[in-house]
Amino acid sequence: MAKNSLDKFIEEVGQIWGPLTSEVIAGCRQHLEELVKAPSTEEWLAALHREAPTYNEVYRDPTHGFVLLAHTEHEGLYRPPHDHGRGWVIYAIQQGEIEMRTYARIEAPDGSVKLVKRDSTLVRPGQVQVYLPGDIHDTRCISGPALLFRFTERDLKKEDKEEHRVTRYIERDGVWTLGRL
Questions:
Q1: Would you place residue 13 in the very low, low, confident or very high pLDDT band (cuts 50, 70, 90)?
Q2: Quick one: DSSP state of residue 102?
């Protein structure tokens, strides 16, 4: 039986999987770049386009724990600055355009925290963005509907809910700062 692009992705990532290294990131990135170029005639991808889910768990690896999610986002959807705690993530765009900005966290002598925008990247179909543990970023759908994949080394939603490891930021008086007082 012929493998589709998703099956090939899962198999190839499983073969290179291990602790966080430059090689693991490079391999996962390469395989994700190949995955987003899959023909939309493949049933799994056609279903994502047809159903346009805001959140869909495409695959969860029972052995290694990595998770591939698909998100359909409408133009203008904004997700404020956040990190992914101790986890890492790779975003890949299959359709549409997403602006992703990165930030540095600056702590003043009085202990107050603010974010300084570092960079802004417009991520287009076929492109990916990598965020390592502690990296802070936001996302805005520029051209939609956008179909993006989020590949994570672990179930970050569960980890955030149970261990509260994700840091979220809010805007106060034009400055991004910690989401909690």
A1: very high
A2: E
- How many structural domains is the chain composed of? 1
Q: Quick check: is 165 in a domain?
A: no
Task: Provide the terminal-to-terminal Cα distance of the chain, rounded to the nearest Å.
Answer: 56
Q: Which phi and psi (to 5°) does residue 42 adopt?
A: -65, 135
Categorize the per-residue pLDDT at 160 as very low, low, confident or very high, splitting at 50, 70 and 90.
low
61 found inside a domain: yes
Q: How far apart are CA 30 and CA 148, in angstroms?
A: 16
51: domain CATH number is 2.60.120.10
Amino acid letter at 58? V
